[in-house]
Amino acid sequence: MLTSINPKLPMRNKAATWEFYIEKLGFSLFGDYEVYLMVEKDEIQIHFFEFRDLNPLENYGQVYIRTNNIEEWYKQAIDKKLMMPKAGHLETKPWGMKEFSLLDPDHNLLTFGQDI
């Protein structure tokens, strides 16, 4: 039986990743090791591994996060002036989801979605 999934994303700088996820997005620290960081919020965890030579413009790390309060998450992203890709603003998709996307400091794409 599968019980959960915890994506692992690259990070160049642990302090910048910490600031983005904990201070800006409101995640809590789950584990902090020299070259590895784990954060959690509600029922999800995201893990990060050190990749100092990562070129953020060539990073294809992506996570899809389902939520039941998409409007609150979007407002928080706008209020905090978080980086969104050009096509990342809140919209209803043909597959029945309301979605928006953010880019973290290493250009990992976080897409937030809610069933409509």
From TrEMBL:
InterPro entries referenced in this protein's UniProt entry, alphabetically: Bleomycin-R, Glyas_Bleomycin-R_OHBP_Dase, Glyas_Fos-R_dOase_dom, VOC_core
Domain VOC per the UniProt entry, residue ranges: 1-115
Gene3D superfamilies: 2,3-Dihydroxybiphenyl 1,2-Dioxygenase, domain 1
Record-level GO BP terms: response to antibiotic
Highest taxon listed in the record's lineage: Bacteria
Keywords: Antibiotic resistance
Keyword hit for Glycosyltransferase: no
Family: Belongs to the bleomycin resistance protein family.
Name the UniProt record assigns to this protein: Bleomycin resistance protein
